[in-house]
Amino acid sequence: MKKVIFVILWAIVGSSVQISFAQSSILYNFNSTETFEKIADRFRQKANDSLALYFYHQSLASATREGDSVRMVHLLSNIGAIYLHLENYTTAMKYQQDAMQRASYTHDTVAVATIYMRQSAIQQAQGHCSDALITANKALMFKKKQMRAEDVAELYFEMYKVYACLSDFKQAYDFQARYVRLNDSLQRAISHHEAARLHFNYELDKKEAAIASIQHQRDGEVFRRNAFIGALVAFLAIGGLLYNRQKIIFDKKLMLKRQRLDNYTQSLVEKSEMIRQVNEELATLRNSLSTEDIHIRKFNEVLNLQILTEDDWESFKIAFEGVHPGFFAKLRYHYPGITVSELRLAALIKLKLSLKESAAMLGISPESVKKSRYRLKKKLEVPDSENVDEFIIRLTA
C-alpha cells in the first residue's frame, strides 16, 4: 500500500514532464530516503516551497534513522536554502549551521564550501555585507580543490553580489567577469555533451536497424549472444589490463615522489649542516687570527643572513605535498590561526626528523626547535598523554 501511495505522488510531481524508465525503476525499488529527496527536488524546481520542505523533512527523518550523515548534511543545507528563499533568515542560518556542524565530522569539504556560500547569501540578504564577504572567502578557499565547476560559477556570482553590496565595484566587476566566462564555458560544454548524445543516439539507431535486418536469419540469436559474450570478455580483459597498468604507473609515480621528497629533505639537511659547520670553522679561524680578515667577516655575514631561502621552502612544499596531499590544508582548516613557521615545523615532524635535523633545516638551535615544538603542542591543544608527533600524524592521515 505504501508503494502505491508514492507511485501516485511521483506521478503528480512529474505530471508536466516525462518520467524516465530509470526513475520508475528507482521508485519500484523504493529507497524512502532517496525517493523523498527526489520528490522534494522536483517540487523545489517548481518553486513549491511548502511541499519541498515537507518532503525534505521526510527524507531527513529517514536519513537520520539510517545514520546516513553525508545525506543529512545535504538535506539540512537544502532546507536552509528554501528558508532563505522564503526570507526566513534566522531559520535558514540555523539549518546551515547544523549542516556545517555535521559536515565537519564527515570531512565533506565540497559540502562545507557550499554551506559557506549559502551562509554568505543569508548574511548578504540581512544586510551584513562585511560578514558575508568573510564567509564567502572561506568558500573561495575550496574553489580550486574539490568544488565542481557549476559550484565555482555560483560562488563567483555570490562574490559579485557581496562586493556590490559593499560598493566595491572593481572587485564586483572582476567576479562578475569570472562568472560570465565560467558560465559560458559550462554552457558550451553542455552543448557539446548534447551534440555527442544526439550523435550517439543516431549511431545507436543505425545499429538497431542493422540488427533488425538480420533478425529473421536462422542463426541471428546465436550470433548476437556469442558476440555479446565475446565483447564482454574482451572488455573485461582490456579493463583488467588497463587497471593494472594504471595502478603500476600510479605506484611508480608515488614512489618517485617519495624518493624526490626524501632526497630533497636530505639535501636541505646536508646543506644547512654544511653551512653551520662552515660558520663554526670561520668563527674558529677568526678567533685564532690576531686581526680580523675582512673577507672572512663579510662571507660569514652573508651566510648568516638566511640559511634557507624562500625558494628552497617553495620547492620543498611542492615535493612534500606530492607525497602528503592536503597536509597543509587540513592543518589550516582545523587550526586557522596556525602560522607559516608552525606549518614548516609540522611538516618536519610529519617527516619524523630529529631535533638536530630539524634545527639544521630551520637554521636554529635544537633547543629552539624543542621550544617551538612545545608551543606548537599547546596551540594544537594536544593532550599531555600524547606527543605532538603522534597527534600530527594521526590528524593528517
Strand residues, percent: under 5%
Count the E strands: 0
Any idea what the shape is? extended
Structural class: mainly alpha
Could you state the order of secondary-structure elements as H and E? HHHHHHHHHHHHHHHHHH
User: What average pLDDT do the residues reach?
Assistant: 79
Question: If you consult CATH, what is the topology of the largest domain?
Answer: Serine Threonine Protein Phosphatase 5, Tetratricopeptide repeat
Straight-line distance between termini? 48 Å
Main sheet summary:
none
Cα-atom radius of gyration: 30 Å
Second rung of CATH, namely the architecture of the largest domain: Alpha Horseshoe
Organism: Ohtaekwangia kribbensis
InterPro entries: Sig_transdc_resp-reg_C-effctor, TPR-like_helical_dom_sf, WH-like_DNA-bd_sf
Pfam family, one: TPR_12
Protein name: Transcriptional regulator
Helix and strand layout, with pairings?
Layout lengths: L1 H12 L7 H9 L2 H14 L3 H18 L2 H17 L3 H18 L2 H17 L3 H12 L8 H17 L3 H45 L6 H69 L5 H12 L4 H14 L3 H8 L5 H11 L4 H8 L3 H14 L8 H8 L2
Question: What keyword list fits this structure?
Answer:
397 residues; 2 domains; 18 helices; 81% helix; extended
Short structural description:
Residues 261-288 form a coiled coil. With 397 residues, the protein is an all-alpha fold. It has helices spanning 2-13, 21-29, 32-45, 49-66, 69-85, 89-106, 109-125, 129-140, 149-165, 169-213, 220-288, 294-305, 310-323, 327-334, 340-350, 355-362, 366-379, 388-395.
